[in-house]
Write a structure and sequence with these properties.
Number of helices: 9
Structural class: alpha+beta
Shape: elongated
Mean pLDDT: 83
Order of helices and strands: HHHEEEEEEHEHHEHHH
Number of strands: 8
Strand content: 15-25%
Number of domains: 3
Radius of gyration: 34 Å
Oligomer: single chain
């Protein structure tokens, strides 16, 4: 049977009582001549009042994402009732980003993280603000993270630390250490780490042809350096190589093509905080 609640007006309460014949069954506690307060007392007494649930306090949790890759990442989210992914924010190469999420607001539980170049708009050099669901989910480089599960793991670790205090034989010194451990852990955040993985950025047709041209020319030049011009059968062909004039290109173009350049064997260490 349905129940009444405190939000009902006096008229609504009387209608509820009359509809269910409570004014005849539970005299004198539920008479239609009573005030709203007395009717509520009678309904509580006989189990016909549903107490409203106290609204849950928002639980704003701060998460952190670490990008352990050399390429920029972009984060998308999707509401359950939508087929569109919304762009949220970017994460720099070897960078990190923090964000807050209300754990009681369950319409955006998952994050979808993808290399920015996979969805880059060549005209704006930005990722689209909205992307259709099938485009994201069909991409082999997309990473999907369940925020609720990640927070639950963090919360369980915290409870495990707190559980140490329940040991009846723990010493006072140990209690202080455990409390310090709890304090230190509370300063951390549920963490999402995008570990290093093999990723080859998409190339335009021009970039593909540039790579083929640079690599082919490099191989022909190496044949000449190895004495290819000394062979009569090869000399006429290799002589024509000298007539090939490469368009302007950079060391980065050479590096992408996989041939020696000014960037070869150069390593660089970048701090997350830079």
């Amino acid at each position: 049977m349905e129940k009444a609640n405190r939000r009902m007006s006096l008229t609504e309460l009387k209608k509820f009582i009359k509809t269910h014949n409570l004014n005849k069954t539970y005299k004198p506690d539920l008479l239609l001549t009573q005030s709203k307060g007395n009717l509520i007392k009678g309904l509580i007494k006989h189990g016909f009042l549903e107490e409203p649930q106290e609204p849950q306090e928002p639980l704003m949790v701060k998460f952190k994402i670490e990008n352990k890759n050399f390429h920029e990442l972009v984060v998308y989210v999707k509401a359950r009732d939508s087929t569109l992914f919304k762009r949220w924010f970017y994460i720099e190469p070897y960078g990190e980003q923090t964000f807050r999420f209300n754990m009681f607001y369950r319409t955006l539980e998952n994050l979808y993280i993808i290399p920015q170049l996979e969805v880059n708009d060549v005209l704006t050099n930005e990722s689209p603000s909205d992307i259709e669901e099938h485009i994201i989910e069909s991409n082999k480089y997309v990473h999907k993270y369940d925020l609720c599960s990640i927070y639950k793991m963090w919360e369980e670790t915290l409870q495990q630390i707190k559980q140490k205090l329940q040991n009846p034989i723990v010493s006072d010194i140990k209690v202080v250490k455990i409390q310090s451990e709890i304090t230190a852990f509370l300063k951390t955040f549920p963490l999402i780490t995008v570990s290093p993985y093999d990723y080859s950025p998409p190339k335009s047709e021009l970039e593909k042809w540039k790579e083929v041209g640079l690599k082919s020319n490099y191989l022909l030049q190496q044949l000449i350096k190895l004495g290819g011009m000394k062979y009569p059968n090869l000399e006429p062909i290799l002589d024509m190589v000298q007539d090939i004039h490469l368009p302007p290109h950079t060391d980065n173009d050479k590096e992408i093509a996989g041939i020696p350049s000014g960037l070869t064997n150069i390593t660089q260490t970048t701090s997350i905080n830079e």
